[in-house]
Each structure stands twice: as structure tokens, then as C-alpha cells.
Amino acid sequence: MKQRERRPGQKKTSGPAGESRRDNRAGRAPKPVARPAATRDTVRDTAPAAVSRPLMTRSGDRPAERVPVILESLGAGDFHLIDSGDGQKLEQYGPYRIIRPEAQALWRPSLAPQIWEKVDAVFTGDTDEEGTGRWRFPREALGETWPLNLLGVDFLGRFTSFRHVGVFPEQIVHWSWMKEAVEKAGRPLKVLNLFGYTGVASLVAAAAGAEVTHVDASKKAIGWARENQALGRMEKLPIRWICEDAMKFILREERRGSQYDIILTDPPKFGRGPNGEVWHLFEHLPLMLDVCREILSPRAVGLVLTAYSIRASFYSIHELMRETMRGAGGAVESGELVIREAGLDGKTPGRALSTSLFSRWVPQ
């Protein structure tokens, strides 16, 4: 279920940014102003020293393109979007009905006010992506965590102070694609999950038969991911849990000559790593994708990028991905991830709620 808001407690995502987007995945630094590539030099003195490697010069044709692509989910497993409107969304997470802020829900709710009133948890307080708030429990006090299941994987939902609950259901479309690719490969695939958060994607990949490397800069997120692994009795699955800055990790993997068949990268808009590394999406994403290209195996199955809470068109990351994969063949498909309202029964399609931008390279 992205990624994009996360982390338990003070979150730091895995990238040179450390914190996670959505919470921005909890624990981000004060909200920065997104800067276009033209201002790159203005923050170079704050960027990690490790990101000084120049971009590769690519030649050859750009991959074919498929745009716009809308990847839609009506819900899955223990999740579905019940209704949305007036800047909020009403969701079902297992046994709990939850209300959270959603700025893109510009319309009026479809369901009656009485239905919205019968909820188990409501996030209140600061609704800014980088702000903190608290949960209100109208019926009875609830525990911090509760069990959930998605694509056959058990994990823990958690009421965090950054309005997230440990899973990003819109990502189900990427995870289903990855699961099918791993199962059909006929060989063990190596999957790299950057900014992996609570590990649901990593567990889905490993359960399907992949060898997984999960990277996140937040110790709390890694701890939560291990809890999820234990909950599902999946300790024997081949997963490496790496608590480190994502950019530092992939640069080292490049030097080592390591290669992966599938790379998922879900970077925040802004963040700080465990040692003060600074990440600005518009500053550092070109290099991150460039390094990811270098550590893709010759028989790679895909490179997936998701971007949340940025003021940009999907075309910006689409064209970047095509330039990055110049000469690699295949195709780049880009667009938006959306979740469609499913009503109280989880089966009645309603309006589509946009959640994030994505770009995905595939070999054909």
C-alpha cells in the first residue's frame, strides 16, 4: 500500500535527506522552498560531499515513452478509500475507520455526515506535510499499533504524529507489478528498495522470491520494518536491512560493482540524513537516478521512481528518466498514482484521488 509520509516518530528517510516525504514520513526539517535545477549551485555548500560525482554522459536513443499513464487502485487487502471531500479523506484500515487531511479533495463528500461521524480515529492539528499533530479517538482510546495485511504480507499500522499510518496504499500498483515480475522471472531477482520506510514493499518482494536490500536512514523505520517481518514470521526471507543515507549507499554500491534487477526509489521532497546530510529533490534527484542506472543489472526488470508533494508536472520526472536511461532501450511510462473511492463496502467505485507522480523504466 508509498511510501509517499512516513516514519515512526522522528522519521528520517533513507536518502541524503534522511527524512521521509510523507511524514514527511515523519520528522522532517522545516519546509523548504523547492528549487529548480537552475539554482543548483546556490545550495551546493549544504549538499553532502558524496554527491560531487558528475553525471554520466549518455548517448544513444531515448527509450520509448508511454504518457500519460494513470495507475489506479480501488483498495487492496485491509485498505480502501471510503469517501473524500472538503479537504479530508475517509479511509478503512483493517478494523478502523480513519479521517485524515487531504488537500486535493476539493469536492464535497458523497456520503452523509452521519457516516463521517462514525469513525475510530481523526487526525487533528497541523495539516502541513512537515507539521505535527495528534490523533483524536471519538469512540474509545486505541492502541498505538494494529495488524494489517496487504498482498499476503502482515504488517503493523501505527498512529504517528505526522498523520501517516505506516503504509501508502497507492503504492499497491507498483508492488503488484514487482510481485508479478519476480514470480515470472524464472530466476532470483535482486531488488533494491531505497527510502524503504516500514518495509512492506520489501516483504512483498522477498515473499515473491526476490533477494532484497532495504535502505532507510531512520533507525525507527528500520525497527518498524523488522517488527513487520517478525509479525509475518518472515525472518528467514533474504532481506538486508540497511540503516544508512540512500545516496551514500548507492554510490558505494556503484564503486563495488553491485547490481540490481529492480530498484524502487521513493525519495522525500526534502530531508536530512543521520549525519546531517541534506537532500533537496530538485537538486539531487538527477544524480540519484544516474547512479541507479549504473547499478541496474544487464537483465534489469525495472527502475521505479515515485515523487510526492512537489510542485511539478509528471513530465519533469518523465523526461529526466528518459535522459537517464538514454541508450538502454525499453520504455519509460509516467503519470500519476490515484486511489479511487470504493464506498462503505469497498466495491463501489467513486471519484479518483490523485496521490503522487511516478516514472517507471521497463526493458520493453
Structural account:
By secondary structure, this protein is of the alpha/beta class. The protein has seven helices and 17 strands. The strands form four sheets. It has an eight-stranded mixed β-sheet, sandwiched between helices. Strands 2-3-4-5-6 form a five-stranded mixed β-sheet, with no helix packed on it. Strands 7-8 form a two-stranded antiparallel ribbon. Helix 2 packs parallel to helix 3 (about 200-210) and helix 5 packs parallel to helix 6. It is globular, with a radius of gyration of 19 Å. About 50% of the residues are buried. Residues about 1-50 have low confidence and may be disordered.
**Mean of the pLDDT scores?**
86
* Element pattern in H and E: EEEEHEEEEHEHEHEHEEEHEHEE
Largest sheet, in brief, is: 8 strands, mixed
Coarse shape:
globular
* Biggest β-sheet: strands ordered side by side in the sheet: 1-16-17-15-12-9-10-11
Helix count equals: 7
What is the radius of gyration computed over CA atoms, rounded to a whole number of angstroms?
19 Å
Low-confidence stretches: 1-51
Summarize the structure.
By secondary structure, the protein is of the alpha/beta class.
Keywords:
single chain, 364 residues, alpha/beta, 8-stranded mixed sheet, 5-stranded mixed sheet, 21% helix, disordered N terminus
